[in-house]
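Our working data are protein records whose layout never changes between entries. An example says more than a description, so a record of this kind follows.
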Amino acid sequence: MNNRYAGRTVIAFLVCFSSYSTFSQNNTVSAGSNVTNSNGIISDTIGQVFYLFGSNTDNSTNDGLQQPFEFSTLNIQNPTAEPIIVMLYPNPTVDDIHLKLTSPAGIDYRYVISDLNGRMVGKGIVRPSLTEISMQTLASTTYILTVTGSNRYLKTFKIIKK
């Protein structure tokens, strides 16, 4: 009976330790290091698969997760430049629309009118102060008017033709 009990003990012992080893951490890493001081040990790896997320009301951490660096360039307008003001009226319209543009001199502005399918139905040059655009020959629907200048989009309007 003692041999039987000893055999069961050995089997139970092997089952416990074999299941313990299956929960160990397995990672494919390309590099890593350990830093030790009197306060503790920090271990880091590159290529770590598993991570632990922790947070409180002020902070959050992702231990072990590779955090990407994101660089972006902001398009900051020159604050000393004169503002460009573009107005369109009347909208909705029956016959003509008026495009009023206040901007620095020396820049050529253009407009393009397209339908909602993207087909261009009209285009022209914007005059320095007021441009009258005839819509008499266009069907009654919704159009998009885009104003461009200095190789960039300046303003887009949705026009309703009655």
